Amino acid sequence: MHPAAARPLLTIDATDRIVFVNDAWVRFARSVTVTPAQAQMLTVDTVIGRPIWDFVDGVQVRQLWEVLYERVRAVGAPVFVPMRADTSRMRRVFDVELHPIGERAIQHVYECAWTEARPPVALLDFASPRNGVSLPHCAWCARIQIRVGVWEEIEDAQLLLHLDPADALPMLKSAACSSCKQSLLKTFPARVA
Questions:
Q1: Residue 193: pLDDT band by 50, 70, 90 thresholds?
Q2: Distance CA 87, CA 114 (A)
């Protein structure tokens, strides 16, 4: 199989509706979905035709994606956005390439840039029981906010917050840390020569 065939792909139209996903994107989305039940509901057929916003949690996260989409559409050139997409046993960094493809459509190409195995992290094991508390979790760097303005790697946050994996754990709420927000707001498409 050609290496590019395994890359997750998603395309949205001018109204931000999903018009294409491949099986690799479905597998990717399932790996970062909050519950096993939600993961199983993700298929090519259940995704096509729905707004991308059905799959984006957090008001601030949505606003940042909207800014990126508008820049891609306005300039007509790609934007490259790094994004962590960790699982409970793996650290992963993806480069998300946003390509304008005509009629204000945008294709997302997810390129895995780096992976590293790690001991299991209970906060990212979505099969673990959850309590009613939620923790802000940056959608781009995967750090956890442990107090206002302080974001830590998930393993460190779990220790600093004294979260016992044997207990019900907080839910992760998608957010944007101040560092990622500033970085994304400075992201501009490469201008076409």
A1: very low
A2: 13
